[in-house]
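Design review, sub-item: ligand-bound model
Attendees: FS, YL, KQ
YL presented the inputs for the nicotinamide-adenine-dinucleotide complex:
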Amino acid sequence: MIEGKESAAVGRPLRYGMVGGGPGSFIGGVHRSAIAFGGYGTLVAGCFSRNPANSAVTGRELHLDPARVYASFEEMAKAEAKREDAIDFVVIAAQNDSHFPAAKAFLEQGIHVMCEKPLSHTLEQALELKALAKKKKCLFGVAYAYAGHVMAKEAREIVRSGQIGDVVMVMGEYPQEWLMDLLEKTEGQRQAAWRTDPKQAGISNCLGDIGTHIENMVAMITGLKVKQVCASLDVIGKGRSLDTNAQVMLRYSNGAKGLYWSSQIAAGYDNGLKVRIFGTKGAVEFVQEESNYLKVAMKGQPPQRLSRGNGYIHPGASKNSRFPSGHPEGYNEAFANLYAAFTSAVRDVMDGKKVKEADYDYPKIDEGIDGVKFVGACVSSSKKGAVWVDVD
Ligand SMILES: NC(=O)c1ccc[n+]([C@@H]2O[C@H](COP(=O)([O-])OP(=O)(O)OC[C@H]3O[C@@H](n4cnc5c(N)ncnc54)[C@H](O)[C@@H]3O)[C@@H](O)[C@H]2O)c1
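KQ shared the predicted structure:
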């Protein structure tokens, strides 16, 4: 429970800052766009790059006060905390190695955090962030963006209502083709370069980058805890040291079984996240690239294709819908849905309400910790020759 001290946010837009999202970057701009799309906050400060000149370029492009464009996130956290008009929350959109130190710097100043996944390089770091967030009474979101899709939430409503019976088998996949060639050797391919570098990416590339989206999506829909994994992380591509393909068998705490495949060397695939949940009475299937729909199949009956925006969608999912059916919503809206929930929690804390983070529908630090545990257990299993390993 986080209890706000004062009524600080009434009647004004929330102010936020960003770490990462500098020139040529990917996800920082997506966060900015999603926050602006829903009017969830105004960007007022940033450290957009490790290179101060590049950070200044982005600051100018975004029309920020140069005094609030910082050379490092450490400086930014300290300086912002001292201001009367300090940021209300920070978005950490830099690559993996900055997540822990940056989140820590802002939590120490009592600033709420939305952090990119994977949460941290190690479980110790993840647990330290959780303890610090609790101590400083800060909210902590983890940007598992796909959890924001309306029809993924509809899958959650259906599975958790018991409609498909007890979950017995889960299939998850996330194939991409973009690292079939050694893209990291090409000048300017920064996203490929840091993902294939263990110092920046951490102990895993492919599984940490996209396998964690499968893990989070399944957990969000089913509520199942992964008990054990048996994994093979495959390093495909000459000279690479991190996985570009990962196969994982899973055992969940309720006895259900799972199989996840993530890959960056799968020709023909862009962002092919697909999750199928099979129960004793039926099944659901969510496909990220067709995120306005959900397949529901009940045993012995013709499968149905549910369409977002229609009256038959459960309120717990449809309240996140913005447009009528047939006007597609996608990645931006999914991100915006995370921010709708996160900023409503931030505002409630600032307005002095008692906030139980569990009541707000965004991925929290525990989900981030589960992701770090999952990757750690899979790496350990793979190193031992693909043996079964406990996740907790
Ligand atoms: N949730 C999602 O769907 C999703 C999608 C893509 C990427 N991501 C995550 O987002 C993060 C960034 O990925 P990306 O593809 O945008 O990378 P990127 O390389 O395109 O951008 C990273 C940005 O962070 C900046 N940066 C790095 N270290 C910094 C520091 N210490 N201080 C300030 N800025 C710093 C870089 O200069 C760059 O501008 C990764 O952790 C990745 O896993 C999440």
